[in-house]
Amino acid sequence: MTLKLEQMYEMQKALDAKIIKEKGLEGQNLLPNTILALQVEIAELANEWRGFKHWSNDREPRTAIPSLVKTSGIDIALEDGTYLQNPLLEEYVDCLHFFLSIARQLEYSADDLCVFEDYVEGETGLLFTELLINVGYLLGDKLQIRESEKDFKAWQKQHFRGAIYIFYALGEQRLGFDFEDIAAAYAAKNEVNHERQANGY
Questions:
Q1: CA distance linking residue 102 with residue 80, whole number of Å
Q2: pLDDT tens digits, residue range 128-154?
């Protein structure tokens, strides 16, 4: 059974609550760190996509890397005892974890994570750049950008929805992931993240 986006949102809330409690982070503004973490993960996703590396002969996305050991929850076990890793999908779901965490911190509902999907125009590399810009705007400088808190929150939500729209389009239209792939990989990585916390990560 495929997870729904609402279920992933609730799973992320539980993971975030566990981390906040175990790390003693109650009452702290974690949004700047989470936004930076998402930007780092987007850059790592672009690195695994590799399409922007015009200087390299190796520009194929990293979607099937053989490994002797299992390194993540989404690795596929092969008959010979080795594993097949998909770093591109793993980085994508790492991004999804942080998108869900940001939505929680901004007190958005699961419905705010749903956007109308249409084909996105433009080169894939430019979409990555636009995604990074929209995520960066989530912090903004509300004193200079908007006159009131209400205006700032509307402006912030507009950029969040723009970012998540591009993110979904990248995954499905450019990187070849369907929702079932994403949901299964999210669940597996979420489990790994809980295990990491239990083991003092």
A1: 40
A2: 999 999 999 998 765 555 567 778 888
- In whole angstroms, give the CA distance from residue 125 to residue 127: 5
Q: Is the pTM of this model over 0.85?
A: yes
Count CB-CB contacts under 10 A for residue 164. 23
Q: Are 152 and 146 in contact (CB under 8 A)?
A: yes
At 18 the three-state DSSP class reads: helix
Q: Please state, as a whole number, how many other Cβ atoms lie within 10 Å of the Cβ of residue 88.
A: 23
What is d(CA 118, CA 124) in angstroms, rounded to the nearest whole number?
15
Helix (H, G, I), strand (E, B) or coil at 85: strand
Phi/psi of residue 189, each to 5°? -70, -35
Is pLDDT of 91 > 60? yes
The two structure tokens encoding residue 143: 């004193």
Both tokens assigned to 1: 């059974």
